[in-house]
Amino acid sequence: MSHVALALALGLAGGVLAGLFGVGGGIVFVPALTLGLGLAQLTAEATSLAAIIPVVAVGSYRQHRSGLVDWRSAGIIGLCSLVGVLAGAEIALRLPEHTLRRGFAAFLVLAAAQMALRASRQLRTVEA
Amino acid sequence: MRRRAALAGVGSAAGLLAALFGVGGGIVIVPALIARGWQAHRATATSLAAIGAAAVFGTVRYAFDDLVVWRDALLIGLPAVAGVVLGTTLAQRVRGPHLQLAFACVMLVVAGRLAW
What pLDDT score does A23 carry? Predict the structure, then answer.
């Protein structure tokens, strides 16, 4: 498959998974970019952030129309994320490729654990 | 004031995750808001809007170091918009704990492949 076709397919599949499981796009995009398209870890992460923007823009617009977004709070959280972004980038730029990759893998394990916990809680409520 | 300080803390943590791992940070924002008594729907919607800012900041920061592959970002991000709409519609029918457990297992396998 050509690079373009593969990227388009990964984007579509990633979006479906993100919507289906309520996870952010990034958690699917980063592995798609590294394992699928062969990008280096930090390049994949930077590209993933850019790929998230259209997804979040459309998602926020839909949620805004449903009247669910608290824009004041979102504004405070969003503005303050700049502090974390600047600090995180300084760290990420200094870490070797394999350390960053393993760090992301550990993050993925935590996200999987969180999802499994949520699922098992639902199973218990269904049974009870 | 305390409420604002808490939101500021959540935002900084989300930004840190965004820059370190290339994710939006919803994974910390949503549980943090719910823990502060927010309804899940409102927390998710507000988190989504906040993530937009974190993603833009992260993209701009990494663009300075020439790390963003714009072509791939577009190729992935644009079809993903359609995918998310499809996925959320699908979620109302098929989403269940068993499917979530299966996806958690897939995430573990991917984590293993990345770590090696």
Answer: 77
pLDDT per residue as tens digits for the range A28-60: 999 999 999 999 999 999 999 999 999 999 989
Encoded tokens for B107? 């995430």
Q: Considering CB atoms only, which of A7, A17, A50 is closest to B87? A: A17
Which residues does chain A have within 8 Å of residue B97's beta carbon, measured at their own beta carbons?
118-120, 122-123, 126
User: What's this model's pTM, rounded to 2 decimal places?
Assistant: 0.92
Tell me how far CA of residue A36 lies from CA of A6, B31, B76, B82, B84, in angstroms: 8, 30, 11, 20, 19
Residues of B in contact with A78 (CB under 8 A): 11, 49-54
CA–CA dist A7, A27 (Å, integer): 16
As a whole-number percent, the residues of chain B with pLDDT over 90 amount to 65
- Where do the domains of chain B lie? 1-68, 70-116
* Distance from C-alpha of A69 to C-alpha of A1, rounded to nearest angstrom: 40
